[in-house]
Amino acid sequence: MRCVQTCLLSATLAAISCGCHGRTITGRTVIPQGERPVAKDATREELLAAYNVMARNTKTLNATVELKPTSGTRYSGVIEEYHEVKAFLLAERPAQVRMIGQAPVIGKTVFDMASDGETFRVSIPTKNKFLVGSVAGERNSAKPIENLRPQHLLDALLWPEIRKEEAVTMREFNNEQGRYYVLTVLRGGYQLEVLREIWFDRANLQVARIQHFGPKGTLLSDVSFADWQPVDNSAAQTSAPNGSSNSTAIAPAQAPSITSFPRTILLDRPHDDYKLELQVTKIAVNEEIPADRFKLEQPAGSELVHIGETADAKPATESKPQGNKAQGNKAPENKE
Predict the structure, then answer these.
(1) pLDDT of res. 257
(2) Which strand (E) or helix (H) includes residue 119?
(3) Which residues pair with 187 in a beta bridge?
(4) Which of these, 327, 258, 331, 319, lies nearest to 132 by C-alpha position?
(5) Is there a contact between 158 and 213 (Cβ–Cβ < 8 Å)?
(6) Does an H or E element contain 65, and which?
(7) Is the pLDDT of residue 224 over 90?
């Protein structure tokens, strides 16, 4: 009897041990082989055409998003006290962008930032600061709040077109999450370098990821896209060919419409040390946006901070508050 009890106890402990190891969390979602969708096929030319339809024909964006910063990042220093932030986002080619973040329920402005491709401006009412700096002269600050950069959003929202003269290679990539096509855009010169990599999910031939690289292979940004849904935009729907609702699926190169947009965008800037998730709740594409809605003036009484400049290099026009202009803190209207 004692021998039997000992054997049963050993078997029970072994089962528990195996069960614990079997529940180890790896942080990766593995799709069982039998549940994976059938991989679709496409040529390099078809993928280039599908990408350029989105890149070439997205002129403006007017969106409402929810921001979810990753813990410990530079954005979390502004947003973490509110846990979540509702933001109004405007973007227009070639480089205009503005985003206003507001605290939930009370609607208090947490930040207001804009960029025209040359100069960025960031207003932080909760800190009574107004930051100004050159887009080309980016330099990290020791103060996390001073590292907010509106132009980083352009990588995720307004894709650069792939030109005919650019060299592009194509390869396949498979892992536990799925099967992909990867287009690699090369930077020319005496020594070729990777400029961008564009990942297509072969389950639906939609863009799933875009990586931007700098000199010597530096990964500047890694942007993931998910949950593509139709855009409720009458102008776009009217021009959609054959009623198609998938803007990144394989389509004729001449197709002019943008009929869908990702609802989840994860922006990762490894060398800027932050990740930011955007959950798009409303989106309008290619609506006309008045130029004054991209203007951001310094609120009266706020402290002017020049990022990456010496005191002697501070522009005189920015050294004084510009008055309490309504567009400085007014959230851009969102239409859908």
Answers:
(1) 72
(2) strand 119-124
(3) 193
(4) 319
(5) no
(6) strand 60-69
(7) yes
User: Is the bond preceding residue 104 a cis peptide, omega within 30 degrees?
Assistant: no
Could you give the CA distance from residue 57 to residue 240 in angstroms, rounded to a whole number?
Answer: 12
DSSP class of 327: G
Asked if 63 and 265 count as a contact pair (C-beta separation under 8 A), the reply is no
Q: What phi, psi does 9 have (nearest 5°)?
A: -65, -40
Radius of gyration of the chain (CA): 24
Tokens 């991989």: give the residue: 39
Find where tokens 């959230």 sit.
Answer: 331
CA-based nearest residue to 39, from 178, 226, 170: 178
How many other β-carbons are positioned within 10 Å of the β-carbon of residue 107?
9
Tokens of 257: 């419409």
Query: Taking the model in full, what pTM does it have?
Result: 0.73
Separation between Cα atoms, residue 280 and residue 175, nearest integer Å: 27
Q: Is the confidence at residue 21, as pLDDT, over 60?
A: no
Q: Which helix (H) or strand (E) holds 125?
A: none
What is residue 288's DSSP assignment? -
Phi, psi of 99 (to 5 degrees): -140, 130
Cβ atoms within 10 Å, residue 61 = 24
Q: Residue 87: which of 105, 110, 70 has the closest Cα?
A: 110
8 Å CB contact between 122 and 143: no
Structure tokens at 130: 């107004």
- The count of C-alpha atoms lying within 13 angstroms of the C-alpha of 184, restricted to the half-sphere facing its C-beta, is 12
CB 36 within 8 A of CB 261: no
- The Cα–Cα gap between 157 and 239 comes to 21
Helix or strand holding residue 144 (H, E) = none
What the block records as the tokens of 274 is 């932050």
What is the domain partition of the chain in residue ranges? Answer: 59-157+290-328
Cα–Cα dist 250/286, whole Å: 21
Number of H-type helices and E-type strands within the chain: 5, 14
Question: What are the pLDDT digits (tens) for 123-167?
Answer: 989 889 999 988 886 666 555 555 567 888 887 899 999 999 899
